[in-house]
Amino acid sequence: MHNYSLHISESDSTNPLLQNSNKAIQLRKAKKKKIKRIAKRRTVRKTRYSSKVSYRLKEIPIKQIQVWKEAQARKLNREGISELAKSIKTEGLQNPPMVQKEGNLYLLMSGQRRLAALKRLGAKKIPVLVLTRKTEYEIPDAKAASVVENIHRKNMNVKDMADACAFLAEKVGKSKAAQSLGLSMSTFKKYHGFAGVPEKLKELVPRTISRDGATKLHQIISDVSKAVKIAHQISKLESSTKKRYLKVLARNPNLSHKRIMKKARSLTLQQIVSLRLSKRKTRGLGVQSRRQDIPPNELANKIVSDWLAKRGY
What we know:
Elements: H1 16-39, E1 55-61, E2 65-66, H2 69-72, H3 78-91, E3 98-102, E4 105-110, H4 112-120, E5 125-131, H5 139-153, H6 158-172, H7 174-181, H8 185-194, H9 199-202, H10 211-220, H11 224-233, H12 239-251, H13 257-266, H14 279-292, H15 296-310
Parallel strand pairs: 2-4, 3-5
Antiparallel strand pairs: 1-5, 3-4
């Protein structure tokens, strides 16, 4: 649970946004007390970055708030920002952005969409929740925590999630990054691998090629233009055929598209054939299997393959 510490000066109390924010925070505190009572009866495992956060409500110039590159996570939806701006204008700012003081600036921890909406409304000064000294982060950890906060607050596309995974892996390590994002290690590694895929290939996901397909294709073909061309060539194929295509491509990266397709399709002809033998022939197969020290299934496969080979197949 978060611990809240709230301080408002005399001059702050006349600001409408601050008044709305103060009321909203008090309502949230009452709600959190109720949740805390319920939480005593159950065990909740948390994967967020910190368990206790204290802050004070303060009004600051909007131009002093810095949004670092890593916290942006993805391009903001213009329509969504416009709707949020209308909501803030009519209902007030219910949940101020959270920031951390760094010199003369304030680093944005959460609330990028709210900040963008307030800028759209032409706000010069806005209320924010400033982290207190006892709960401030070191700069690398602050960036990581900000990325995690943004991810949990919105639906991420594959590219944005991959970028976030790469950033967090560098800052806090793969294991802690996966835990913070609520991902299994295997899923995290797939996103992390996708982070190294060139932008032109990433843009084709998921309409033209899957995330895993793009990652594998980049590993096989380092030439970006060639990889993009192949992605378009196999875009209409069934998922199973795409996998076989990439399998053949990995073994023979210099083959033409036509020859790779031929080999990929030939893989579908490989089938398991069941043979029904009489008791006499079954005993004979067993005898020959022991004499030649070959398992019965392999011996049967060899006999059939040799028979077909003699007839030109």
